[in-house]
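note to self: dont lose this again. the chain is below, predicted strucutre after it. 254 aa total, dont forget to put it in the shared folder this time
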Amino acid sequence: MTQRLKGKIALVTGGGQGVGQGIAYALAAEGAAVAVTGRTLAKLEGTVAEIGRRGSRGLALACDVKDAGSLEQVVAETVAQLGGLDILVNCAQEVPLGTLNGLSEAAFAAGWESGPLATFRLMRLAYPHLKKSGDGNIINLASSAAYRWDAAGYGAYSAVKEAIRQLTRAAACEWAKEGIRTNCILPLADSPAMAGWSAARPEEAAAFVATVPQQRVGACEADIGRFVANLCTADCRYINGQSIAVDGGQAYLG
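---
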């Protein structure tokens, strides 16, 4: 790797596995120090150990993204232990799948609290540090689920992910003049969530993957993580406020 992010400090939620872990690895490969958060400390420590083996610095911070105090603490710890904050990646999300009549209010609330509300809180907590950086980047994760022709069973999930896209656009418009770029990716990746969906709904998952022009699901680090890392570099300094599908061409955003 080219170490284009050497000296940068990143905070990645959901960094213990899947897409968040892949993004953390890719940022570290470009030279960034990376704090990873999640609910299971052992998974985070595994991510940090691998970051260390790759020659970068990592920090594992247990966190419940639905808890405002926990979010405040991880931002403070990241800044205190790593020396600042240049990159925020909001990846953690509880997925509220189910029909409108079948989904519980608790599941929908958990999707809201772990998704757009946590994203809103973390962006505001990170804001003064990203502003101080002068070269701040926020990457939020949404989904192409809202572009399904058949939304049955995906309404609540699409709703929370679309809320994240709108928060992304607002931050991009409000904070760009202060040196903060904000973008959103809509990834398709071979994550544990994808594996769980494929196991629970094998026919639906197979039919979906068949619609990907590149005929494969993306790798968490090589395809998704490396794209995010590139988006945070000076090579993409004029990219702001965009929702970008990183999915082999499956979704058409219009």
